[in-house]
Design a protein that fits this description.
7 helices, binds S-adenosylmethionine, Rossmann fold, alpha/beta
């Protein structure tokens, strides 16, 4: 299929998508917000006064939701891309896998945090296997960091793709956390291999 035909299909799909329309009406930067909303209503991730790290945060709908939902929160949003300012959050632009950036996060909090979110995903290459492997590696890196940064009863929520790294990630999560769930919110597109892993209470 030609490139401009693919992008026309994408635009038409976006126009028809109820979550895209809803996000525009409600002032969210992305339809991804409804995935986090569903995860929170099922797994009770947010409460007032907590500290949150949002990895792969651009354009910013998860951070928008967290900052509205949680009173007196401390939220740090990180992405390779610039994130437009969101009230009550701090933004860092850079590669999360870079040690220097991870040190910046440690310095920003200087203590353990309550929630680590990761919606990080690489730009799709068209090769679904490759995309799921690279996104799986980002999930593992985020989980390692969460293990170090979270309080004992903290929560880790991450995008995970059905693919070759899936079992490895779930096994690792079960070793690190007492509760591990895999959940595909209704807002996650049916034809996408994406799901979310929700982990609670460190071992
Ligand atoms: C699906 S989008 C996130 C959407 C976001 N949760 C929201 O609600 O607006 C995935 C993001 O992951 C980011 N990303 C991918 N690899 C990254 C990395 N190594 N470090 C930081 N961000 C990364 C991409 O730049 C992209 O913006």
């Amino acid at each position: 299929m030609k490139k401009n035909k693919i992008s026309k299909n994408w635009i038409n799909k976006q126009r028809r998508d109820i979550y895209v329309r809803k996000s525009k009406i409600e002032g969210y930067r992305s339809r991804a917000v409804y995935k986090l909303q569903e995860i929170d209503s099922k797994f009770k991730i947010f409460k007032n006064g907590i500290s949150i790290i949002d990895l792969g945060a651009a354009p910013g709908s998860w951070s928008q939701f967290a900052s509205q939902k949680v009173k007196n929160s401390k939220i740090l949003s990180i992405d390779l891309k610039e994130i437009e300012k969101i009230q009550n959050t701090h933004q860092i632009k850079g590669d999360f896998t870079d040690n220097k950036l991870q040190n910046q996060i440690r310095e920003y909090f200087s203590e353990k945090v309550d929630v680590v979110l990761s919606d990080m995903a690489v730009n799709t290459t068209g090769n679904k296997n490759l995309d799921s492997i690279v996104t799986g590696e980002l999930c593992i890196e985020a989980m390692n960091f969460a293990k170090e940064m979270l309080k004992y009863n903290g929560n880790f929520v991450s995008k995970i793709f059905m693919g070759t790294t899936f079992n490895e990630i779930v096994l690792k999560a079960k070793k690190c956390f007492k509760q591990t769930n895999i959940y595909k919110p209704a807002a996650s597109r049916k034809n996408s291999k994406e799901s979310f892993i929700i982990c609670k209470i460190l071992r």
